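Per your request, structure below.
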């Protein structure tokens, strides 16, 4: 099944627009783990070597550490294998140390439905068995009437139920019946800096427990991706060059302390159509954990979550800088925040709370980083004149 592309229509209160770079969700469908074989290296031809060089090599080998190799007996002319053991202590904050701590909390998620199967990743956010993942990982279980199975690192499998899901934020919470689940520590994505080291853990291509590393390449990327339900996800994403592949979706992106700072969700592709599945090109995107935590708490508490809106529709044909309010008769919600603030059809919004807005995508994801009830200041242009208004965000109904 081909990767999901950003071709679906957006929520009813906003029109569709196309992102500059085609994006696709990172988990995929019915993968068999790749078979990896290691060829035997060729045995080099023997050649004579001076005694002094042999001694030098022996000294260097001893300086490097314990190794396995062949020892030459000068008296008999024979060789025999020498095997030594090395006890390497890895620091707790090394990649190996972090992976050892975090991996038991990361799960593989498998969905079986009449429409086929999906695979992805997830991680425990609560000791009572609550698991955070992406909505598009589990969506087929809802639309196709399927089942969800969670596979732990220990090899145990559990049936899972959906506690709640949010297509607009591409998040879902699952629940399995376990006691004392190894919940991960959630970090603060607002404190992340470009260049910070990160580690991604998940099940790309069905290969559970895969660990990749990299850095935060950028922040506040406006990412939209299509969904099978017809609703698009809008993410104010963290960008990373850690390898993210189909099946990584829903898995954690952790910092150098092992705290979760993002939920891996999408990858950039090289085009809009493929003869096969695409792989990592160093452009992965994660939902900031601060947003994910807020949505997860709402889903656990009520089964639903809220989305803040301004109360207007945007012009998807506008090619200038900024987000232009559509000029249709119903472009501004009657009685909504935009109307109360005096915004009009044709106004071009260029910033929100001082953060520049270059497109409609950027405006939507910037709005969705806020809470319902927050007051925001919009900078906009009307007839060549720059103005500002302050309004209070309301919940989408």
């Amino acid at each position: 099944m081909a990767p999901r592309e950003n071709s679906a229509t957006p929520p009813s209160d906003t029109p569709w627009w196309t992102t500059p770079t085609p994006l696709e969700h990172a988990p995929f469908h019915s993968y068999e783990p790749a078979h990896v074989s290691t060829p035997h290296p060729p045995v080099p031809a023997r050649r004579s070597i001076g005694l002094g060089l042999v001694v030098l090599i022996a000294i260097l080998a001893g300086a490097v550490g314990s190794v396995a190799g062949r020892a030459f007996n000068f008296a008999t002319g024979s060789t025999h294998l020498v095997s030594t053991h090395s006890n390497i202590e890895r620091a707790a904050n090394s990649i190996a140390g972090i992976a050892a701590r975090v991996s038991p909390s990361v799960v593989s998620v498998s969905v079986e439905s009449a429409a086929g199967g999906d695979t992805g990743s997830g991680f425990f956010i609560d000791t009572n068995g609550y698991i955070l993942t992406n909505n598009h990982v589990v969506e087929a279980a809802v639309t196709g009437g399927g089942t969800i199975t969670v596979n732990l690192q220990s090899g145990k499998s559990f049936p899972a139920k959906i506690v709640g899901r949010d297509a607009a934020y591409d998040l879902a919470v699952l629940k399995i019946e376990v006691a004392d689940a190894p919940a991960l520590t959630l970090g603060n994505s607002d404190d992340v800096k470009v260049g910070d080291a990160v580690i991604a853990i998940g099940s790309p291509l069905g290969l559970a427990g895969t660990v990749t590393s990299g850095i935060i390449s950028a922040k506040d990327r406006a990412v939209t991706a299509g969904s099978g339900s017809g609703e698009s996800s809008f993410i104010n994403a963290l960008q990373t060059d850690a390898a993210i592949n189909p099946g990584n979706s829903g898995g954690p992106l952790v910092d150098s302390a092992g705290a979760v700072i993002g939920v891996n969700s999408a990858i950039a592709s090289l085009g809009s159509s493929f003869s096969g599945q695409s792989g990592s090109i160093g452009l992965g995107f994660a939902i900031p954990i601060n947003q994910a935590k807020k949505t997860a708490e709402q889903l656990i508490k009520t089964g639903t979550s809220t989305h803040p809106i301004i109360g207007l529709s945007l012009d998807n044909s506008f090619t200038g800088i900024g987000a232009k309010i559509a000029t249709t008769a119903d472009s501004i919600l009657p009685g909504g925040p935009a109307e109360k603030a005096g915004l009009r059809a044709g106004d071009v919004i260029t910033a929100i709370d001082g953060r520049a807005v270059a497109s409609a995508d950027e405006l939507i994801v910037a709005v969705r980083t806020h809470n319902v009830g927050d007051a925001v200041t919009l900078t906009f242009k009307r007839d060549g004149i720059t103005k500002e208004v302050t309004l209070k965000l309301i919940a989408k109904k």
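The CA atoms of residues 201 and 391 lie 40 Å apart.

Regards,
D.
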